[in-house]
Design a protein that fits this description.
Layout lengths: L7 H11 L4 E2 L11 E2 L10 H8 L3 H11 L2 E4 L2 H21 L9 E6 L4 H10 L8 E6 L21 E5 L6 H8 L6 E5 L10 E2 L5 E4 L12 E2 L5 E4 L4 H11 L5 E4 L5 H10 L5 E5 L7 H5 L7 E5 L12 H12 L11 E5 L9 H16 L3 E4 L3
Parallel strand pairs: 3-4, 4-5, 5-6, 6-7, 7-9, 8-10, 9-11, 11-12, 12-13, 13-14, 14-15, 15-16
Antiparallel strand pairs: 1-2
Helix pairs in contact: 1-3, 4-5, 7-8, 10-11
InterPro entries: LRR_dom_sf
Protein name: F-box domain-containing protein
Length: 384
């Protein structure tokens, strides 16, 4: 079959499978999976020889393959960053001479920075101008101490980035400058290890729908001057409950899904549910002090799914202590179909509600389970 008539769908499938990178961005409802490794292909890692063989099929096949080969680029060394910059520069020059558009199109760029490695930043400064149309940018700094970076390297980041994953102690203001630069296009953002300031800069993120702060370092105060009117999915693990509730209040009724980490104050559970009247999914870690949380919420018009997580060191339901179990049952007692009319599922992680307990505790749990079953609320054990 002539390559000129080679079906583009078949060609793209061949190249994508043979050069597949299992790491990519996924803006799923659960922000714990940004970026995600696709389990189906996790064990498959194409080697250099495979890619080289594909390039030797023909000049035309090689040219057609470039857009797929460079869709996802992962850089771990400064030498690789400079090599990538050299290749992009060289091809751009050749394309200009031949009157052809550069076939290499990087859609997702993941960059790792080691301690005091300024070469990566200088390489980034050269690579980013060739990433027009970049959709996802992942930046990971392995340094344990704060690093200084070359000024203005972030000015090369294309304003088309929709998903950003930032982890690391790099440049005091770099993170805020990057976010501000891509603010108009940014849809999903996950960040950690970001320096906290008394007066963080103001940022407007009109399209941001997914926000994740998996670590407490830096605190939620970095968001104090951020405008996020489209925020629907929030994951946080912070200690400052007052600042967190303020962020939720500014989001208004746009929030649909909230995941609270183990460090979040017990008082935040009820406060967030009360403020977010359009909330549909709620995940949180059960802790002492939450006994009356749902009772204080009283009712909720839209909540559909609740997931409770129990940590091993703080799982009173499995301890066998009656007082702890009574506390747990009291926490759940207010979750009724009458007060939560849209509630359809209650999931448990780290605690199986169908386990064997003494007669009194088992009776209280069965009473709750029967009441939920009567009103159509499904109870599910989601694993340890």
């Amino acid at each position: 079959m002539s390559l000129l008539r080679f079906p583009p769908e078949l060609h793209s499938n061949i190249i994508r499978y043979a050069t597949y990178s299992p790491v990519f961005f996924d803006i799923s409802p659960d922000p714990r999976f940004w970026p995600v490794v696709n389990e189906r292909y996790a064990g498959f890692a194409p080697g250099y020889e495979t890619k080289k063989a594909l390039m030797l099929v023909s000049h035309h096949f090689r040219y057609l393959s470039f857009p797929y080969l460079y869709e996802v680029v992962i850089v771990h060394k400064s030498s690789n960053m400079h090599l990538l910059a050299k290749v992009l520069d060289s091809k751009s020059s050749d394309s200009a001479i031949n009157g052809l558009e550069n076939p290499r199109k990087i859609k997702y760029l993941f960059v790792s920075v080691s301690a005091s490695n300024h070469d990566v930043f200088s390489g980034l400064w050269k690579v980013l101008p060739h990433c027009q149309g970049l959709q996802g940018f992942g930046f990971y700094a392995a340094a344990t101490e704060w690093m200084d970076s070359p000024q203005n390297w972030f000015n090369s980041i294309p304003k088309t980035v929709r998903v950003c994953d930032w982890q690391g102690h790099v440049g005091a203001w770099d993170f805020f400058r990057v976010v501000d630069r891509i603010s108009e296009s940014l849809v999903s953002l996950r960040f950690s290890k970001v320096s906290q300031y008394n007066s963080p800069p103001s940022v407007s993120l009109p399209k941001l729908s997914h926000l994740s702060m998996p670590e407490d370092h830096g605190g939620v105060k970095v968001l104090s001057n951020w405008s996020m009117p489209s925020l629907t999915h929030l994951r946080v693990n912070v200690l400052t409950s007052v600042a967190l509730v303020r962020v939720v209040e500014r989001a208004g009724n746009s929030l649909r899904s909230v995941i609270l980490g183990p460090k979040v104050s017990p008082t935040s559970l009820a406060q967030i549910a009360t403020v977010s009247q359009n909330l549909e999914e709620y995940t949180y870690h059960f802790r002492p002090g939450m006994e009356a949380s749902w009772a204080s919420v009283r009712s909720h018009p839209s909540l559909q799914n609740i997931v409770m997580v129990f940590r091993r060191r703080c799982t009173p339901p499995r301890s066998g202590v009656q007082s702890s179990m009574y506390t747990f049952c009291s926490h759940l007692q207010s979750l009724t179909g009458a007060h939560f009319p849209k509630l359809r599922r209650i999931g448990f992680v780290g605690f199986d509600p169908h386990s064997t307990f003494d007669a009194q505790i088992r009776a209280r749990l069965d009473q709750l389970l029967d009441a939920w079953n009567t009103t159509g609320i499904e109870v599910e054990y989601l694993g340890p």
